[in-house]
Automatic annotation (TrEMBL), chains A, B:
It comes from Brevundimonas bullata. GO terms for molecular function: flavin adenine dinucleotide binding; oxidoreductase activity, acting on the CH-CH group of donors. Belongs to the acyl-CoA dehydrogenase family. Its EC number is 1.3.99.41. Residues 471-591 form the Acetyl-CoA dehydrogenase-like C-terminal domain. This is 3-methylmercaptopropionyl-CoA dehydrogenase. The keyword Magnesium does not apply. The keyword Transcription does not apply. Residues 168-271 form the Acyl-CoA oxidase/dehydrogenase middle domain. Residues 86-164 form the Acyl-CoA dehydrogenase/oxidase N-terminal domain. Residues 288-453 form the Acyl-CoA dehydrogenase/oxidase C-terminal domain.
């Protein structure tokens, strides 16, 4: 009904911020220094980000709202992508965006993971529903590169890398979600080395569509003689269409979608219910090790979901900023202007500044995780690779959960900045609020991430990775002490101390098998504590780098000063949370155990 | 697509919790003790809550999801309510639910405001879109009781009280939202004592519908000779159909809806764009004092919106609790059960417990504000009435903003508890997430509430009301010290101290005219601090009352023990926020003022 701001509906890829995060905070130069990425240098980074940003702005962003309105459609056993999506996907594949990090042997460009993540942030920001399609192909690529046979690599992997086909992750069943060990889909040997899959799967993102000729499903199922539970699950590959020896497509396989879900958001991403009725499949990797193989792609997907959170937050933030600059109400206490832009009201500017600071923090966490993943594979020594692998593992659940929480929070604040207009669907802010809400849920709920962090990641190496992180943060604190006076320093110091206290408390509790519930009761708070503090550390590193550039006269001084200010804003508005997080980490399980259904039911 | 839990979709009015909040926390006995409510006693309270709960459960709740799907419809200059809503409204009016607090002279039941709020919580929980219709009638009733002429009372007020007609608040224009002073709708004298209204209004909730024969609009507009800005706004009453001297309806008035908005949520509540084209109107109250008159109903509406937040949170919570008891995944660390209800996982139970505790806190704040409103009118002495008015004024922005933030937060956690199912619209959790999002926006955004709190309410009486509150909280602290040991006591002590520090800091800053931006920069954090701490105080009062009942063997011991546990859980998970809030209160405006568009734009 109401006039919408055309300008606010457009998306501008934050190329300068992305490059800053990669270079000045995440340290992508260390990745380049390994020599493992022959085709990578700073110029390539700039070119990739520019090109990705342009594609996202010009091709993907304009399809976002129409895709939300039309949605993907199911009819007669097949899914049709939302209008414009098939053509956009073909351009996307032709542009080489599905092959950035794949190996040269598989037809890829062998670029760093961290760069791919930065490029994909613009994809998810422009069109989160679209971005899910290639995101799942990338995860499939990662799994096949790791454990695929030569035949599987030649036949399927190369087509996923080229983007001619897409990949889907097929895990969940109605009674096996967070607990995949409960799944019941069966794989029966056909006698010729292939298997027949039978079962029903749900929540299969882009499980069917009309954007490519073929779709490769990576499916978790049980062999006939498999042990019960998680140790009896194997990974299978089943193509929508059989692939002949010459690479041409053969007959349609025996699986098909039986419907798509009606969802709160990401309407243009088909979430399929899939039926496998004797679908011909190949084993991928080793029998009964399917969960481990799947976790190769799951970890990549979790980090990618974290980047989704950053992307949707950036989109929502830009929308809100544009509105705040355009919308005029009331007198500004700063400028004295009557009917001033609401940007000139302190509470609105604080809101926008905190949104921006949190986005920068989440972005830096995700890209740092990407850098760690690159270095875990390519750092010079075994010891370095192990240390970086520890950092990657420790950061992955934080990157996933904290960034997706930020995605929802920033999208909600974006609605709020718009006032009443934010609640009107035509404005666009509401879509981000709806779309963002899935990211804390899929690829392992954020509660599962917290359990992964305290249950596995924290103690996987006796706490070594956590202590290494604390040491790194303390090193930055010393430098920050030369940059700021008073509270911005004290707050980071207190925050790092809180991480140390919480870490020691948890490691202690974990050493006592009777205290499992204490550990789990504090898991969510510990993850949030880590996110808040690591995020602050990232902004502090950004502030130090900005100061160095300012001193060297290297770059736009207003924009660089912004990096220093954002750290300070974050310190005042976010780092204070740590005492609350610390209290909740240590709350213990007893009180919770005593909370009865009767008391909770009212 | 997926089987939904029928049980989870139903709503059960929390009558026992509501009665506990009224009696044990808000202190409704003080209202009864004034003697001003002749027909009120504890039995009446119980009967009203039971009957309201039953109506909400049986008539309103079943219409909630169908109403979301169908929505209110606009066609050919008229709005049609969602299916079933007209009949439900007629039953609602016949049940006397529109007349609870109105004066006996106007045909009302003259019951306490606090009781009405408790009864309406069940209405909003069952069907938030429906509840908005009578909520706005109640606000109109309040305005006409306060400043209507005898003619207006006889002609319009009685019909609003009986529910035969509904009322609408008509304030916003495209360029006059938070800043109503900018509105341009005109009122031109017709020469016969009536006025002709001309202008366009937006966001008019239930501005048109087919549930009643007539609709009474209370409209803000400008007289020809009115001063510019907020001091030139008058309040007018204009009926959809003229009312003849005998009370029968005459000709259709010259205003009509020109469309309804497509919104994120509350689809069954028509949000109308209204055009007034010479609509015949009466002046209500005094010329150019329209804003002051409107604020009589605005304050009532703000408190009612706070209750909406509580209601939608309660609904989302019940839904999530039912799912958590039904859904089985993984082994419980407590019971050892394999494939245990997710309720038996510590993080899920913590989530549910914190949801419940926050709802109880928000409910108690809202109902305490209602009690304060009742006592502000009816307490024995002028000094008492003044003190209670101060409490009501201080609490109103907190009740509105903090409770509606809780509404969104709990609705979001409700989605999360459902995992992937939460994102599927059929499950129902997503609707609460969508519906709840409007409450922090309308009747003054929560940012506006924060400005009201620090700008007007805090210092209206030299800070006396704030100091009285702090003194009351300290008195409870002494009692709590006898009930708990260690942290539950320390945390409340620290929290009250934080309120005191923040209050003094703000009063100090407010005394310096050059520090207006400092005050505004801390406004949001101060409101949140107050909400967190006052909420904790409310739960502490509940714990004390529960302990007394336990000791007296008066009531279900499991349920009463829950009140003690909820305070403790809240202390561990929420009260720790205060140090963060305190830091943000005092952040000052300078850093924000320096944050340039260029820095924020990336």
């Amino acid at each position: 009904m109401l006039k919408i701001l055309e300008t606010a509906m457009s998306y501008r890829a934050p190329v300068r911020d992305l490059a800053f995060a990669l270079e000045a905070v995440a340290g992508i130069d260390q990745v380049a220094a390994t020599g493992a990425f022959a085709d990578y240098d700073a110029d390539v980074m700039g070119a990739v980000l520019e090109a990705a940003g342009q594609f996202s702005e010009q091709v993907l962003a304009p399809l976002n709202r129409p895709g939300d309105l039309a949605g993907a459609k199911y009819a007669d056993g097949a899914v049709t992508a939302a209008p414009g999506f098939v053509d956009a996907y073909k351009q996307f594949a032709e542009g080489g965006w599905t092959s950035l990090t794949a190996s040269v042997e598989a037809g890829g460009q062998a670029l760093p993971k961290a760069l791919e993540l930065a490029a994909y942030e613009t994809v998810h920001a422009a069109n989160m529903a679209f971005g899910l399609c290639p995101m799942l192909s990338l995860a499939s690529i990662e799994a096949l590169e790791a454990v695929g046979t030569d035949h599987q690599k030649t036949t399927y992997l190369t087509k996923l890398v080229s983007g001619e086909w897409t990949g889907a992750m097929v895990l969940t069943e109605p009674h096996a979600g967070s607990d995949l060990g409960a799944l019941t889909t069966t794989a029966t040997p056909n006698g010729d080395g292939t298997y027949a899959l039978n079962g029903q799967k749900i929540f299969i993102t882009w499980g069917d569509h009309d954007a490519t000729d073929n779709i490769i499903h990576l499916v978790l199922a049980r062999l006939p003689d498999a042990p019960a539970g998680p140790k009896g699950i194997s990974l299978f590959l089943t193509p929508k269409f059989a692939v002949n020896a010459d690479g041409s497509l053969g007959e349609r396989n025996a699986f098909h979608p039986v419907g798509v879900e009606h969802k709160l958001g990401i309407h243009a991403s088909p979430t399929c219910v899939m039926a496998y009725e004797g679908a011909r499949a190949e084993l991928v990797g080793r029998p009964n090790e399917g969960l481990a193989h799947m976790f190769v792609m799951m970890n990549a997907a979790r980090l990618a979901v974290g980047v989704e959170g950053v992307g949707i937050a950036e989109r929502a933030y830009q929308h809100a900023l544009a509105y705040a600059l355009d919308r005029r109400q009331g007198r500004s206490v700063w400028t004295g202007e009557k009917n001033a832009p609401i940007f000139d009201h302190p509470d609105v500017r604080r809101t926008l500044g905190v949104m921006k600071a949190k986005i920068a923090a989440a972005r830096a966490i995700c890209l740092s995780t990407g850098v760690a993943a690159d270095l875990a594979k390519h750092a010079a020594t075994e010891a370095e690779r192990k240390a970086w692998k520890g950092r990657e593992d420790l950061f992955t659940p934080i990157a996933k959960a904290w960034s997706t929480d930020i995605g929802c929070e920033v999208a909600s604040l974006g609605v709020q900045v718009h006032g009443g207009m934010g609640f009107i669907e035509e404005t666009g802010a509401a879509q981000y609020y709806r779309d963002s809400r899935i990211a804390p849920i899929y690829e392992g709920t954020n509660g599962i991430q917290a359990m992964d962090l305290v249950g596995r990641k924290l103690s996987m190496d006796g706490g070594e990775s956590a202590h290494a992180l604390i040491a790194d943060m303390k090193a930055t604190l010393i430098e920050i002490d030369r940059l700021y006076v008073g509270k911005p320093v004290e707050r980071l110091a207190t925050a790092i101390e809180a991480v140390e206290d919480a870490t020691l408390w948890l490691l202690d509790a974990k050493a006592d098998a009777t205290r499992a519930a204490d550990v789990l009761a504090g898991a969510d708070a510990y993850l949030k504590l880590m996110g808040d503090v690591v995020g602050g550390w990232m902004l502090a590193k950004g502030a130090l780098a900005a100061k160095a550039r300012l001193d060297a006269g290297n770059g736009d001084p207003v924009w660089l000063q912004g990096k220093l200010d954002l750290y300070e804003l974050y310190a005042a508005n976010v780092l204070g949370h740590v005492s609350s997080r610390l209290a909740a980490v240590g709350q213990g399980g007893d009180l919770l155990q005593g909370l009865s259904v009767e008391a909770l039911a009212g």
